[in-house]
Amino acid sequence: MSDSIYDVIIIGAGPGGMTAAVYTSRANLKTLLLERGVPGGQLQNTEEIENFPSYSHISGPDLAQNMFEHSLKFGAEYGQANVQNIVDEGSIKVVYTDNQVYRAKSIIIATGTKYKKLGIPGEEEFAGRGVSWCAVCDGAFFKEKELVVVGGGDSAVEESIFLTKFASKVTVLHRRDRFRAQPILVDRMVKNAKVDIVYNTVVKEIVGENKVNSVLLENVKTGEVTTFPTDGVFEYIGMNPVSDFVKNLNITDEEGWIITDQRMKTNIPGIYAIGDIRKDAVRQVVTATGDGCMAAIEVQQYVENLNAESAKSLLS
Length: 316
Ligand code: NAP
Known about the structure:
Number of domains: 2
Oligomer: single chain
Pfam family, one: Pyr_redox_2
Largest sheet: 7 strands, mixed
Bound molecules: NADP nicotinamide-adenine-dinucleotide phosphate
GO molecular function, one term: thioredoxin-disulfide reductase (NADPH) activity
Keywords: Disulfide bond, FAD, Flavoprotein, NADP, Oxidoreductase, Redox-active center
Family: Belongs to the class-II pyridine nucleotide-disulfide oxidoreductase family.
Subunit structure: Homodimer.
CATH superfamily of the largest domain: FAD/NAD(P)-binding domain
């Protein structure tokens, strides 16, 4: 167990967590930022950001790097760790990771989301051999190949456009006849000569030998099943929360999204949640950073009150 008691431990170094670290460390709170992967969260999987004020065009990994450097500028400590559990002991919260135990007066949870999977035959078998959830990571493996993208939200639409940098053709398979993605993105996709769209269609199976060679499609209106040749499948069908490690705290809804009030407070004093992990979050970089600021200000107040109470009890 580490001897230090941190004022705040921030779990997850995405845009929300990194912003919170800037604010808490700049307020002289002893801050530890923990991340199990590469700092940046979903920014690392995003080719281009064009709606973060002051950047009309920046790559996700570049913005992540800028934020990460900034997050450590005022003295926050950084650790690579996979958090397994948090135990609430009242004025102290204990954070258990794979190989260390940390203690803090408060916690900000900023662990975001992971991609949903289709759960169909062939998906696990061909993961990394034609099936992917990350165009930025894997797109370059598909130069002059034909791809399908599954989904109809912002991610599916944005990433289908990105994949045309490499692929000779990208077919977007959407289960409905209307996209939920922002109209500006849909418009760009529709105008892209390399993108075809197939509506009212779901993938039943991913088929191949050593690697993917086709998908089995079903038209949800007619029930017709067809084989569609493809070299790769990119799944963008939404997100699941990364919150297994807080199961025991009873701060989530039944799907695992963390419930907070508008000040980012969970139902446990001293534990806050920010960004994409929050129930009903808008899931934008800019809103995650706003959440980070809000939680940090709340933490400042909480730790100040806690310190004042313990000073009072020492005197009495
Ligand atoms: P999303 O908005 O939840 O969209 C998921 C899409 O997948 C929907 O079109 C959904 O269809 C479809 N889908 C879900 N389950 C499916 C299944 N089993 N089979 C086939 N299709 C299925 O997810 P997202 O696009 O990953 O976006 C997540 C959040 O991040 C959103 O809030 C989004 O706005 C945000 N985001 C923003 C940006 C940006 O601002 N540039 C970029 C990326 C993501 P239905 O439409 O029929 O439900």
